[in-house]
Design goal:
Layout: E1 4-9, H1 16-28, E2 31-38, H2 49-59, E3 66-72, H3 75-81, E4 86-91, H4 94-110, E5 115-120, H5 130-138, H6 149-160
The structure holds adenosine-5'-diphosphate (ADP).
Length: 170
């Protein structure tokens, strides 16, 4: 059996930064599980799990060794259940480092078999995140070039439906 890895994240929504990491992982490994974290504490999510999965499926249509799933609970446990020993993550600015380092060491402590591999972001995606995409869209800006073209309209439409409370200054 070939090497399977997990690319975990919130993907709320998928960006070109995510897709870059997923497609690079798909070239390096035989099978890539893109795992959308169901985080009950993260009430701030803009897209439902189902929507995030659908957008990821559409965005990765050209890649044939990708599986899109959602998972609940600890990533280290989920990896064990799936018999996966490698996690692939993207590393952006220095600000990502401290958190990712902590996560990688914690995951390894829970599941000592588990290794975390970091792929450095493409420089053009260095400051790209789902929250930036949402912020730009909510202010009426264009998110073309930030999210995959094939899901651009869907993301824009969905974000435009998100009403802010009246008189909200946030
Ligand atoms: P965010 O909500 O910050 O966009 P996620 O939790 O959805 O991030 O991220 C999932 C994975 O994708 C993480 O490994 C994260 O480091 C990586 N990632 C997110 N955006 C980028 C980017 N612009 N370049 C490289 N990796 C990225």
């Amino acid at each position: 059996m070939g090497k399977t890895v997990i690319c975990p994240g919130s993907f709320d929504p998928v960006t070109l930064g995510h897709l870059d990491i997923i497609s690079r992982a798909s070239k390096m490994f035989d099978h890539v599980i893109v795992a959308v974290l169901v985080n009950p504490a993260k009430e701030q999510s803009s897209f439902s799990i189902q929507e995030r999965i659908e957008l990821l499926v559409e965005a990765t249509k050209g890649l044939d060794n990708i599986e899109i799933v959602s998972f609940q609970g600890l990533l280290a446990e989920y990896a064990k259940e799936r018999n996966v020993t490698v996690i692939v993550k993207g590393l952006r600015a220095v600000s990502d480092f401290e958190y990712e380092f902590q996560m990688a060491l914690t995951n390894k402590r829970i599941n000592p078999e588990l290794e975390t591999i970091f792929l450095t972001t493409e420089s053009k995606y260095m400051y790209l995140s789902s929250s930036i995409v949402k912020q730009i869209a909510s202010l009426g800006g264009s998110i073309k070039g930030f999210v995959p073209d094939c899901v651009l309209d869907r993301i824009v439409e969905r974000l435009s439906k998100k009403q802010l409370p009246e008189n909200s200054e946030d």
